Amino acid sequence: MRDRLERELSDRYLIERELGRGGMASVWLARDRRDDRAVAIKVLDADLAGAIGADRFVREIRLTTRLLHPGIVPVLDSGVLPAGTDVALPWYAMPYIPGESLRARLQRETQLPIGDAVRIARAIAGALLVAHRQGIVHRDIKPENVILSGDDVFVVDFGIAKALLETGAERLTSTGLAVGTPVYMSPEQATAAPVDARTDQYSLAAVLYEMLVGEPPVTGPNTQAIIARRLTAPVQSIRTVRPTVPAALETAVLRALERVPADRFPDVAAFAAALDSASDPAMTPSRRARRTGLVLGGATLAVVAAIAATMKLEHRTSPMTSVDPRVVALYQRGVRAYDRRTPVAAREAIAAFDAVLARDSSYGRGWVGLAKTYVRIYERRFELPGISRDSLLALAVASADRALVADSTDAQAWVAQAIVRRQIDPSDVAPAIRAARRAIALDSLDGPAWHFLAMSLAESGDMTAALDAWRQCVRRAPTYTQGLTFLAIGLAWHKQFDSAKVWADSAVAVDPSYLFGRTTVGEIASNLGEQPRAIAAFEAGRRLASGVEIPNTLAGRAMAEARAGRSADARATLHQVDSLDSRYVPTPLHTAVYVAQAYAQLGDVDRAVSWLASYPTHEDLHYQLHVRCDAALAPLANDARYRALLRPGTRLGDC
């Protein structure tokens, strides 16, 4: 097999070694010559390949490329090894994930700690939920298809079972091959009845059962015996084998293992929420509610977050004290507006937080929201009627201090301190780092705390630590769009554009109206050479933008047009920026950087450097981060005026 792979794929891949072999495929470690990254190439077994249409299998498997989730290992490339004297063999390439399979860990430990088992199951559920929304059912969830890499959990082989069924169902049956693994199959899948997303829920519950008990819920000497027992015998109680498992957790798992799909949870999100609320009775109510929100989306996430905010305040005061639901609703309205990062949304956020504090001035989160939004308005040069820009930082400081007075044990109050302190002296991030670490010490599950720690670390020059912190952020808050987007940006600063693309696309999948996510998708697509996609993303951002964000999105479009060889279009777009930017004096940081990128790609070094120099605070560490790390500024590397803008001892690419 190695000789065959090297003969057919040597132009693209350097085959290194065989990673493993199963009943349906062999897996090979290879080096992608074009992108200089490790990949795993899976080649279907000859018996299986002979039972299906190889070319159609490849077409089907390519449909899974639309799945965007950090826990889904995507298909990067695929093809068919020509038949020659043997059968044609379909193959596909995936990113190589260093680590071990869940099967390997189970073989080593048999039973996993309850917290680990639930965490892994919830991560799998998050990946499944994204696939189910795209109409893709995995059909083969099992420990072998789950990869553990540190604290990260990845699911592989999405769409493989469907591709096999679509391309050769009758021939698979006639040859005795089955799609799926008997001990984890749902009853409907085992009996060849039609299946939907609930079959994956059953399989996930079977995997979780094994993580808790040490063996699957149904076993037997052969496939027929397993299917017979599944259809007739009850599942053994988890607590009989392991009494430390909470009763509510057992109830949730057994419900997902019901024989009749209608008796299971309506979807994997509901199953994951039940696991979360049942797994740790000692967990504080606020953390339980926050964790439940990790696997949900949209309105459900907002409701869960509102409950979390209510419980947080109840815990802080006394069991008999509750928060006015109207206060919580107003606060959540403000948070949603703040997260949209537009001028109009910032004003909506201020109005909402003001309304919160008008009802309850002791509600610390209201002061946190005000502090963060005042900084956003100051930093992005938004306009706030009735308040001068010179007053914004003072208002932010006062609001952040009021948040600490209200509750110095609230992690978000320390996040507000981190944000404000970073603005007080943008050339010194040490106070912001200390405040962010204090927030994490109070609540290690707080996604924004990890994000602002990461940003401050990146600005300090420690990009490795920053990327680690952003990964912690999205691990704890998978739907936090700012964390997803900045992890993408951090990876792009590290020139890991393919990985960055996945995270940026994930942010937009969570919230299609998230302006910053759209422009980040555009920037990364442009760096990957995908200029039509980049232009479309910046245009989508332009439709969402207002105020100072309009020239920023136009500048991004101009950069992509320049890289596409459309110089005249790029200059016409930049002419629009010139007319808009005259309203903002001095030039905002991001406008200066984005326009400079466009001119750099046009080869107009003079204008690029002039735009960079137009931002007055050159010692601002966030400015330095962009000037040092943005890939689009590479044409300026040898210009003395550009180098003079950098902090002493640094150069382009020190990221």
> What proportion strand?
5-15%
Rg calc:
27 Å
Overall average residue pLDDT: 84
The CA-CA distance between the termini, in Å, is 41 Å
* Largest sheet descriptor: 5 strands, antiparallel
Helix content: 55-70%
Number of helical segments? 32
Please specify the SSE layout and strand pairing:
Elements (H helix, E strand, L loop, with lengths): L1 H8 L3 E9 L3 E8 L4 E8 L1 H6 L2 H9 L14 E5 L7 E7 L4 E2 H8 L4 H20 L12 E4 L2 E4 L4 H16 L11 H4 L7 H16 L9 H10 L5 H4 L5 H10 L11 H12 L5 H8 L5 H19 L8 H16 L2 H17 L4 H17 L8 H18 L4 H14 L5 H13 L4 H14 L2 H14 L4 H13 L3 H14 L4 H13 L3 H14 L4 H15 L3 H15 L7 H14 L2 H9 L7 H9 L10 H6 L10
Antiparallel strand pairs: 1-2, 2-3, 3-5, 4-5, 6-7, 7-8
Give short descriptive properties of this protein.
655 residues; alpha+beta; Phosphorylase Kinase, domain 1; three-stranded antiparallel beta sheet; 8 strands; globular
Describe this structure in words.
It is globular, with a radius of gyration of 27 Å. The model is unreliable at 167-178 and 280-321 (pLDDT under 50). Among the domains are: 2-95, Phosphorylase Kinase, domain 1, CATH 3.30.200; 100-282, Transferase(Phosphotransferase), domain 1 (Orthogonal Bundle). Helix content is 60%, strand content 7%. The longest helix is centred in the first third of the chain and has 20 residues, at 114-133. It is an alpha+beta fold and 655 residues long. A hairpin with a 4-residue loop joins strand 2 and strand 3 (37-44). The strands form 2 sheets. The chain has a 5-stranded antiparallel β-sheet with strand order 1-2-3-5-4. Strands 6-7-8 form a 3-stranded antiparallel β-sheet. Helix 14 (298-316) crosses helix 15, helix 15 (325-340) packs antiparallel against helix 16 (343-359) and helix 20 runs antiparallel to helix 21. The chain starts with a helix and ends in a 10-residue tail after the last helix.
